[in-house]
């Protein structure tokens, strides 16, 4: 039976990008209420707090206030979000859980009353949000003005007031219909947020208002009440297993013939003596049509199991599809002035036995073609960091990072920013990295825009969050766009350098998308005929 969705759209009317970033917000505050045993009790506590706030409104024309209730039980944020059905906008972000490679996210959070005095600390595992207290969106490329507009609502004293979102891979490219709801970038401070901590959880509400943006306290509190009426407090355990959704068809853009032509064209350009192009990353978009609608949150929960040492994310603006992913690649993590990034390039499958896995690892480490692809990425990121950091450390310089299905060459880079405003500089200079675009960046970007036949949208763009004293962004690869009645667009790319082979690169695309497609049941009746589509049996 086909699953039906009745999407309830919860839309904030305040776009923070329309304000003056030079004018400070009147108040930025977090209040922590007493702990409760369950989400339902947390809802009761917050509804009482909202009634109190209505009786005692703040005497300010602008501000942002977060009320948070600790829950004495660890409940998964992804399961809370799934319980909210299709309330929009919504977001989800979880850091890498595995510490096996020594490169997991350091998300130790100080949780207090917003005045610098902390009451306790916990590791934040993941955060899910519904509705937006304030959102940030424009059609023009993400700018310093936009970054300052976001930072205007954030404070180091309130570390869990964060803006979650994503930025397009190429903001100069035309936006295709499937990506229109996202604009050039889309960030949101959740109106209702569920934080999964190590050993506990937290439910929070955030109210933001600014009379100068025609969004008053009364309007903000009324909007919050409307959202709270739609929040479910009963959270059901997800099975996190393959959905059994029959795949009716799967079509690639480009198809194999056009892919071969594109790769040969890239190699011809790379091997031309007058060309500056050293590497270009070409991508593929695969449209998967299933018998029933794909539940993006349930799919993402399965991806959590598939990729333990990866970031999981979901971003779905009002009236738009869900952008979901399971990416192993960090763009950067900043805490105060400390910043870290990493180089991830070259791909091999995991071996079926430990001996075969080691053999594949050795082949990856000794391959001249893969060494070139990886070195281009590592040195480019190092140069970008050195332009804004006093000292950059690269350690390890080259090793193998093993994921569940694949393995990559890997290096970690860290340094200290000279000033906090360099965060915008490092974001705009690191993105896009040679791992998802190529080198030189502009030459590769132009080649992609002239060659690829689809809009990457937020695929391969920065996805993550800004906070007051801390920010973290991953690279939006291993991702998909899930849309009601339209199946999913699954994206993957591969780096083309001297020595690349079109068929081998095509096989690498299949390897990278396998973590998504294998969570669906790859079966259709053999008599099915769909013209111009690749049928999967």
Automatic annotation (TrEMBL):
Q: EC top class, in one word?
A: isomerase
UniProt cofactor(s):
Mg(2+)
User: What does the record give as EC number?
Assistant: 5.4.4.2
Give the subcellular location: Plastid, Chloroplast
Known catalysed reaction(s)?
Answer: chorismate = isochorismate
Q: What is its main location?
A: plastid
Annotated Gene Ontology cellular component terms: chloroplast
Query: What keywords appear on the UniProt entry?
Result: Chloroplast, Isomerase, Magnesium, Plant defense, Plastid, Transit peptide
A GO biological process of this protein is:
defense response
The residue ranges of the Chorismate-utilising enzyme C-terminal domain are 256-512
Which GO MF terms are attached to this record? Answer: isochorismate synthase activity
- Report the pathway entry: Siderophore biosynthesis; salicylate biosynthesis
Which parts of the chain are coiled coil? none
**UniProt superkingdom:** Eukaryota
What family does the Swiss-Prot or TrEMBL record give for this protein?
Answer: Belongs to the isochorismate synthase family.
Name the job this protein performs. Isochorismate synthase involved in the synthesis of salicylic acid (SA) required for both local and systemic acquired resistance (LAR and SAR) while SA synthesized through the phenylalanine ammonium lyase (PAL) pathway seems to potentiate plant cell death. Also involved in phylloquinone (vitamin K1) synthesis. Has no isochorismate pyruvate lyase (IPL) activity.
Q: What is this protein called?
A: isochorismate synthase
What organism is this sequence from?
A: Gossypium darwinii (Darwin's cotton)
Q: What is the lineage of its organism?
A: Eukaryota, Viridiplantae, Streptophyta, Embryophyta, Tracheophyta
